[in-house]
């Protein structure tokens, strides 16, 4: 099958590499910037363009992997001259029918994972959620998804919004907390590496124990003495203080409700 990838960011890069590893031919990459388009195209050994007018018209699949803010605009530009092929996006919070009235065969392929351009991931371990406009569109999406992972699940656009929300809490906000922890340690010239065993054990634990059963720390019992001392340590960062207070209140409330 011939595949065109619209986008050259983190997910587009890893998706393209995974498709190449699966023996599929990515024939073209589109990006708004020459540098990004050429960089990914070189890794995939394919053509590239920075003009939507030059996107190939005879591909089997068109994969839109771009920011939500430009997705609809690009769909309007790319789809207006194309009637064949299967069109799909990879966004967690955008509906599948954003393609409606533009093309006939369309849907969503949403891999639930965090991606970076230079960090290769094993797609076989990644759950992929798909939704199609018709039975035939779903079948085509399933064929594509099964090249990447055995973990394929149907999911509606509405349910996917909540899945994406959960992923933001579990991944993006968690990583932000790591960044704050790194900032705290660096101010005291302590290596972030000393936290890695703690971080790794916390992640491993939720494979065996539900998160609400695994919660520890001063906020569980709302140890005011510890909490107030730690808030004072962040007096140079009012935003961090507010985050600490809000998270502590949330942890304490959830654990209080659990025990009632």
Strand content: 5-15%
Shape: elongated
Query: What is the alpha-carbon Rg in Å?
Result: 22 Å
Treating each run of at least 4 consecutive H or I residues as one helix, how many helices?
Answer: 10
Summed up, what is this model?
By secondary structure, the protein is an alpha/beta fold. The chain has helices spanning 10-21, 34-44, 68-79, 135-146, 157-187, 196-205, 211-214, 218-221, 224-233, 238-258, and strands at residues 2-6, 25-30, 47-49, 61-64, 86-89, 106-111, 128-132, 152-154.
Describe what you observe in this structure.
- Residues 126-251 form the DUF2520 domain.
- It comes from Prevotella bivia DSM 20514.
- Residues 3-87 form the Pyrroline-5-carboxylate reductase catalytic N-terminal domain.
- This is DUF2520 domain-containing protein.
- The protein has 260 residues and is of the alpha/beta class.
- The chain folds into two domains: 2-155, Rossmann fold, CATH 3.40.50; 160-257, ProC-like, C-terminal domain (N-(1-d-carboxylethyl)-l-norvaline Dehydrogenase, domain 2, Orthogonal Bundle), CATH 1.10.1040.20.
- The chain is 49% helix and 14% strand.
- It is built from ten helices and eight strands.
- The chain has an eight-stranded mixed β-sheet, with helices on both faces.
- Strand 2, helix 2 (34-44) and strand 3 (47-49) form a beta-alpha-beta unit.
- The N and C termini lie far apart (57 Å).
- The mean pLDDT is 96.
């Amino acid at each position: 099958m011939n595949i065109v990838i619209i986008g050259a960011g983190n997910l587009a890069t890893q998706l393209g590499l995974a498709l190449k590893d699966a023996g599929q031919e990515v024939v073209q990459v589109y990006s708004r910037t020459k540098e990004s388009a050429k960089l990914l195209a070189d890794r995939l050994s394919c053509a590239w363009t920075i003009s939507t007018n030059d996107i190939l018209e005879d591909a089997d699949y068109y994969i839109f992997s771009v920011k939500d803010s430009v997705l609809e605009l690009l769909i309007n530009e790319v789809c207006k001259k194309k009637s064949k092929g299967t069109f799909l996006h990879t966004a967690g919070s955008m509906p599948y029918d954003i393609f409606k009235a533009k093309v006939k065969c369309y849907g969503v392929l949403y891999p639930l994972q965090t991606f970076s351009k230079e960090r290769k991931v094993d797609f076989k371990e990644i759950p992929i959620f798909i939704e199609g406009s018709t039975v035939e569109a779903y079948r085509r999406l399933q064929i594509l998804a099964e090249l990447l992972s055995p973990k394929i699940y149907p999911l509606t656009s509405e349910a996917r919004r909540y899945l994406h929300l959960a992923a933001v809490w579990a991944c993006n906000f968690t990583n932000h907390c790591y960044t704050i922890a790194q900032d705290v340690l660096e101010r005291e010239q302590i290596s972030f590496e000393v936290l890695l065993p703690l971080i790794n054990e916390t992640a491993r634990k939720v494979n065996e124990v539900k998160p609400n059963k695994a919660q520890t720390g001063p906020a569980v019992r709302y140890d005011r003495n510890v909490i107030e001392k730690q808030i004072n340590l962040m007096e140079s960062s009012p935003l961090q203080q507010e985050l600490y207070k809000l998270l502590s209140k949330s942890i304490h409330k959830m654990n209080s409700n659990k025990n009632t």
